[in-house]
Amino acid sequence: MSHNKSLRVAAAAVALALAGTTGFAMAAQVPAGVKLAAKQELTRNTGSEPESLDPVLAESVPANTITADLFEGLTATDSFGKVMPGVAESWKQTSPTTWVFKLRKNAKWSDGSAVTASDFVYGWQRFVEPKTASPYASTYGIFIQNGKEITEGKKPASSLGVKAVDKYTLEVQTPYPVPFMPSLVANTQLAPLPKATIDKFGKDWTKPGKMVSNGAFALKDWQVNSKIVVEKNAQYWDLKNVQLAKITYLPIEDHNADVKLYESGENDWVLELPSGTYDKYKAQYPKEIRNAPFLGLRYYSLNNKDPLLKDVRVRKALSMVLDRDILAKKVTADGQSPAYSAIVTGTAGADVTSYDWVKWPMAKRVEEAKKLLAEAGVKPGTKLKFAYNTSDYHKKMAIFAASEWKSKLGLNTELESLEFKVLLKKRHDADYQIARNGWNADYNDATTFLALVQCDNDQNDNKNCNAKAEALIKQGSDTTDQAKRKQLFTQAVKMIMDDYPMIPLLQYTAPRLVKSYVGGYGKNPMDRYRGKDLYIIQH
Amino acid sequence: MWSYTFRRVLATIPTLLAVITVCYLLLHLTPGGPFDGERKVSAAVLANLQAKYHLDLPLWQQYLYYIKSLLQGDLGASFRYADWSVNDLVGKALPVSAAIGGGAIVISLFIGVALGIVAALRQNSLIDYLVMLLGNIGGAFPSFVLGPVLVMVFAIGLEWLPAGGWDDFALRYMVLPMALLVFINISTIGRVMRGSMIEVLGSNFIRTARAKGLPMRTIVLRHALKPALMPVVSVIGPLAISSITAAVVTETVFGLPGLGKLIVNGAANRDYTLVLGLVVLVTVITVVLNLLVDLAYALLDPKIRY
């Protein structure tokens, strides 16, 4: 997606969110002239066995991919990331901290009963309830009045700022203005839930034959570690715009096995290509290779409390000599673009920042970096310790970074390959010097990326803190003027990034193989594709 | 023999307890916990999660709690797969592994023994060299090389069989993984059988049988086979155990929902209860198979009596 186009998409999403809406053209419309196949069945690899099909317990991409087909929240996003009406047909921000959603009267559960405002109240309360222990409770719950306190066990779930005004009107209170509310409620953690079914079956309510859902698809079969099958939900309100009759999700973790299944025709959708094979498959399957940037950042965390790295000059030197262009074009070579900010292209709510030295020739950058190191008293031969989780891809990048620091600055890097959970633990505990890191946006707003560099944020592995920038973020969060908010956030990001708390490297893309007969695949900035928007072209 | 079997089964209990205890401690000593994710959960959510899975209790209390549930036949709730209990997960994976691994071992036993006998009877002939070559290929090439080759040839090239996956014990999904395991296993069984048969055929009682003018067929099947099978029986136990419980590569290459993958993912996810449940299962399978091997000795060798 080009820079401008993605901005337009993001801007459109925000504009929709702000304006409130009625009467959209629906998604999943097949372009004129496209002939649909008689058999509308799709098999896609989701990459691993989902940890749960309970929307509030879903955390990973595989689980969220499937729950987004089974459940529908107040809104939904289409294949281009545009916010579309879901169960809500319209919404309005009636005060800086109040949103009112009008639900459609024809939305139904798969058992034929109506989806009402109280199903949302129940679902959201269950989501933040400490007993549920939803991993996302502290990520999304904090945007609803009292959500944070409920998760911490300080208030009862009934005090959550969500109310069924009547059967089809839902009122949401937020602790401060949340302009991206319409995008936020597209997440299925905030979907309605079928209370009667959950009360009846307990933990087993997500099993085939028991689950009642309100999305475009209903659960048909679940063979653990083998496949999950869903079929068109005959009760779905927008049934005429659902083309696929059946979706099979595979939990294939091995990238090579994924491609083999694709080549033998048993899989229509390779989730991720094996490391270093993008060019090969691009040449081999030019019509089937799909690659679009999404809201995700590859970066290296710098431990700002480390004796060596607590000096901003050292952090700056390390960042400025890493040639992101070579990293993108030669090392990773899968269509990713260089990144120099904590915010990536396409993010709503803040502009992407950059550094002056990005435009400098490398020789000048190296000269400046050497000067900075000399000023900081760091001598050539000084040792750096770099931790990454075992993977060919990360190893390749780590070796590149180490060689850049060695050849340009004379610094020796000790590479440490760790098991993923060990790296996570070390990162969270700040028990590292430099560590591989990455982040995918949870919703399209700058705050999801700001979390990575904000003072005392759980997601801040760098342990940096800029009090002045923090004040700007606070000010931006409290304002209802969207232009002002964006300007304050951008200013804060710039201020933080000038402290070099981390080394932004690349913006993620999703290079994958999808059969040319799979229609409706767009360029979703969140890399989320609902079955509702996809169809099989005659082939 | 029954009292021997009973004593062996009884001896399993302390073994099992020791294995569980060591494994329990090792799992908890490993850095990184079940709830360490890319997205760090807030302290409040972590506390909620730990309370849900009793991880907020002191370690010894958690251990006793686990042993208590185990005695009631409950392997606990999976930390990773919230919708399933460990009993569910193990119950679904075991039949898959038993079918693939167990089936493969039975087939490899027949083929391996037959090839070994043929090679031994035609020692240093072309057939012998071919069998040995096959054996060496199976032994030298790792399954992560042979597996994809099978897929390339039979799934992508000839399109005879699926490249992987699983559909409720449908035979077409079982053929390639079983073929891979059979190929690897017959290399060991064939080589052991050949060596052992050559040795037995050179022994005095076979010479006597020959001198009596018995046909070769009778000599091999009635007199030589039983003693020659002894070393094969020794290797079949460990082979069966690894085919059923540790066929991780085969399961990964073919995307099978078996035990091997479950145990590796369980360990990577720090799914304590799942790993412990599988360790219990693997220990039981090992003990049972070893017992069967020992009992088989008694059937084959008249000198052994329990």
UniProtKB/TrEMBL annotation, chain A:
Keywords, ordered alphabetically: Signal, Transport
SUPFAM superfamilies named among the record's database cross-references: Periplasmic binding protein-like II (SSF53850)
Localization per record: Cell envelope
Record-annotated Solute-binding protein family domain positions: 82-457
Pfam families membership: SBP_bac_5
One annotated Gene Ontology cellular component of this protein: outer membrane-bounded periplasmic space
Leader sequence segment: 1-27
Annotated GO MF terms: peptide transmembrane transporter activity
One GO-annotated biological process of the protein: peptide transport
Recorded family membership: Belongs to the bacterial solute-binding protein 5 family.
Protein's recorded name: Peptide ABC transporter substrate-binding protein
Organism: Aquitalea aquatica
Automatic annotation (TrEMBL), chain B:
InterPro entries, sorted: MetI-like (IPR000515), MetI-like_sf (IPR035906)
Subcellular location: Cell membrane
Superkingdom of origin: Bacteria
Pfam families named in the record: BPD_transp_1 (PF00528)
Residue ranges occupied by any ABC transmembrane type-1 domain in the UniProt entry: 94-293
An example Gene Ontology CC term for this record: plasma membrane
GO molecular function: dipeptide transmembrane transporter activity
TM regions (residue ranges): 9-27, 98-121, 133-158, 170-189, 232-254, 274-300
Chief subcellular location: membrane
Keyword field: Cell membrane, Membrane, Transmembrane, Transmembrane helix, Transport
Topology of this chain in the membrane: Multi-pass membrane protein
Claim: Transmembrane helix is one of the keywords in the record: yes
Family matches, as PANTHER family: DIPEPTIDE TRANSPORT SYSTEM PERMEASE PROTEIN DPPB-RELATED (PTHR43163)
Membership in a protein family: Belongs to the binding-protein-dependent transport system permease family.
Protein name in the entry: Oligopeptide ABC transporter permease OppB
Species this protein is from: Aquitalea aquatica
Lineage: Bacteria, Pseudomonadati, Pseudomonadota, Betaproteobacteria, Neisseriales
